[in-house]
Amino acid sequence: MTAALVLAGLGATLALMLVAWVLSLALRNAGIVDVFWGLAIAGAGVAWVVVAPQDAPRGALAATLAVLWALRLGAHILWRGWGRPEDRRYREIRARNEPGFALKSLYLVFGLQAVLAWLVAFPLFGAAVSTAPLGPLDYAGVALWAGGFTWEAVADAQLAGFQRRGGAERGVMQAGLWRYSRHPNYFGEFVLWWGLWLVAAAGGAWWTAFGPALLTFFLLKVS
């Protein structure tokens, strides 16, 4: 494990978040970072597979699953926010850091999230450097990922339909998966990421558990 290989993932997340920052300046909307969050994580995984010194079927598998997750999530967030003003969270950050928020956002918003995306992505690193053959634990991880991915996608679609009907102005979503949980989309998110970690763990990278653990903390305590 070389520092150059580890840092290749960070380079990918920083590059993608730099693109997002440039777009945010043109749009005057720092909320575009949410669209790039998943793309940055998946980008780290792809970078690790590309620069790994050996063929990495486990890494290719994990990176493919991450890319599918990132594309769906990014498209959903982009569609959800299309034509709407900047998210309240970023308006508050902007207000606290004016004047000069345009430049400050490069490190306060986009740089910070690039580093966090890199850390969350480490199960993809563990998969990329593994040379062990695929086995039952990998397939269990893929099954867990598929369950979480489906759960999150269905929850997002149900909430989007509810909001299109204007029900969000009349009450709280209490149908479908939202009948059982206040945040079924978040539940699906951390289930699929623990599934990806299981793929990494199958190759011996148990230590990468800090990635999904960090994501779980964000979902429970921050988001």
Explain what you see.
- With 223 residues, the protein is mostly helical.
- 75% of the residues lie in helices and 0% in strands.
- It has nine helices and no strands.
- The protein has helices at 3-27, 32-51, 57-81, 88-96, 101-120, 122-128, 136-164, 184-202, 210-222.
- The longest helix is centred in the last third of the chain and has 29 residues, at 136-164.
- The model has no long low-confidence stretch (mean pLDDT 92).
Portion in strands: under 5%
Helix run count = 9
- Tell me the number of strands: 0
Please give the alpha-carbon distance between the first and last residues. 33 Å
Question: What structural class results from the helix and strand content?
Answer: mainly alpha
Largest sheet: none
Rg of Cα set: 18 Å
Averaged pLDDT: 92
Q: What is the molecular shape?
A: globular
User: Roughly how much helix do the residues carry, as a percent range?
Assistant: over 70%
- List low-confidence stretches: none
In sequence order, what are the helices and strands, one letter per element?
A: HHHHHHHHH
Summary keywords:
mainly alpha
